[in-house]
Amino acid sequence: MKGAALYLRDPVTQEEKFLAPVGPEASIGKGAGASIVLDVMRCDQLHALVERDEQKNEFVVIDLGSHYGTFVRGKKIQEARVKPGEVFLIGTQQVVLRDTGKDLPAPAPRPRARRAKPTTSRPDPKTQKPGAKARNEGDILQVTLYWATSSSS
């Protein structure tokens, strides 16, 4: 298999839209760590991995523990082999693997998003009420709600 690419298929019109070329492997998700970004509702940050098996002219689709699942041939899978032309589902989105017949550049690795360092603000001891505990970012706050119901006689 020279080159391969993923396409999104519209379930109503059956039209396919180019998504991205696939190299030896590609991760699919809607997060910054995915090499192919699929920004749809039922797609996790890192949803699935597609790996090339050159010897058998097919790909292996691996679900990365996604919440909504990856489906091949109508069944929820952990890992399944997919041949060019087959459709698989990422959540509810139809994805088609196509043999392009030519080499395509693999998607460039995306830089990992840097997480901001947590900031903790220290309460001013002058304004803090006596006996009150200081709260920091990330502390759990318990709230109890009360409501009354009126009963009509």
Describe, in plain words, how this protein is organized in 3D.
The chain is mainly β and 153 residues long. It has a domain at 4-99: Tumour Suppressor Smad4. It contains no helices and eleven strands. Strands 2-1-11-10-7-8 form a six-stranded antiparallel sheet, with no helix packed on it. It is elongated, with a radius of gyration of 24 Å. The N and C termini lie far apart (79 Å). Residues 110-116 have low confidence and may be disordered.
Percent of residues in helices comes to under 10%
Overall mean pLDDT score? 79
Distance between the termini: 79 Å
Largest sheet: 6 strands, antiparallel
Calculate Rg over CA atoms.
24 Å
Number of helices: 0
**CATH class value of the domain at 4-99:** Mainly Beta
Name the strands of the widest sheet in spatial order: 2-1-11-10-7-8
Shape: elongated
What would the CATH topology of the domain at 4-99 be?
Answer: Tumour Suppressor Smad4
Q: What fraction of residues sit in β-strands?
A: 25-35%
| Structural category | mainly beta
